[in-house]
Amino acid sequence: MTTARTTGHGPLAGVRVLELAGIGPGPFAGMLLADLGADVVRVDRPGGQSLGIDPARDVTNRNKRSVIVDLKAPDGPARVLDLAARADVLIEGNRPGVAERLGVGPADCHARNPRLVYGRMTGWGQEGPLAQRAGHDIAYIALTGALGLIGPPDAPPPAPANLLGDYAGGSLYLVVGVLAALHHARESGVGQVVDAAIVDGAAHLSAMIHGMLAAGGWQDRRGANLLDGGCPYYGVYETADGGYMAVGALEPQFYDAFVDLLGLDGDLRDARKDWTRWAELREAVAARFRARTRDAWTAVFEGSDACVAPVLSLREAPRHPHLAARGTFVDHGGITQPAPAPRFSATPTAVRTGPARPGADTHRVARDWDVPELAPDPEQPLPNTAARGD
Prior knowledge:
Blueprint: E1 2-3, E2 16-20, H1 25-35, E3 39-44, E4 64-68, H2 76-84, E5 89-92, H3 98-102, H4 106-112, E6 117-122, H5 137-144, H6 163-188, E7 192-197, H7 198-205, H8 207-214, E8 234-238, E9 244-248, H9 252-262, H10 278-289, H11 294-301, E10 308-310, H12 321-326, E11 329-332, E12 335-338, H13 362-368
Parallel strand pairs: 1-11, 2-3, 2-5, 3-4, 5-6, 6-7
Antiparallel strand pairs: 8-9, 9-10, 11-12
Helix pairs in contact: 1-6, 5-6, 5-7, 6-7
């Protein structure tokens, strides 16, 4: 783990992003844009909306600034439109039609700023039979077939946190979309709406597997394929102390190194190519891993090309020597958190500030974005943001 860098603003320095407060994939997308150097202003509502944690520890709001606007107040929509008029990108995560009813939909914003990229983050998308239905990550990935890929064939698919739907299928596609649209807007002067639906993104992630399915190289069931746990040399095994080791020895040379270091009998080496012996091979591999602790097996495979790694917990991961050497995690403001990614040679990124406190930056944003109506009392002292770790 390393100390967060405080220099460098990233490749999106100078880009203004307006984020209408929400939870889940919207704030994560805003964090990614902020990590890349954009000036992200989050419009929080009075009373706030969060994950039920202290806002000072919600790292998805790092590197951002926050203002409070009551969109249901008579002048609320006008304040947001004033900000949108000066923004390059706006992102929102309401159900379809909500932003329009509040007076801050795409048509309202484009009337003030035709170049604006208006990014919309939803689970089901802006249209379709389920567009108005409530949902969460697990339902979205269930419908796309992504959830059905995961887990053993004789048990329910496990919930993969909210990484696959909210963040991989949602946030990352929203960011790709708004950056592509921003490029178009700067070339043409024309903004547009980006409809980022988690169901679309999660489905898109399975493109390779759909190709394998069409080619006859993938069975449409769990635990029967090369990458879904069906293959005995691509999976997770328990160790003597209740830990786990992850194995991904797919290629022949990696498989040979794996079976050598694991100490398997020679007659099992050929089982790699014979799927009728996969159950036998899996049983033998499992028995070997159960004979030693996770740390002991980690030492055995250290420095090899066997493609085997220990399964670490969230608290263990930052201490792994490789991740520590790269600075994959940083400690900023007393919070250990993933560092910005990816990395840039000419425009380095950094965790510049801690999580934005709701409304703490209203006066600064009013000044910097030239929206004086946002903070009608400029003489009022600015809130103390020292606790953010700025």
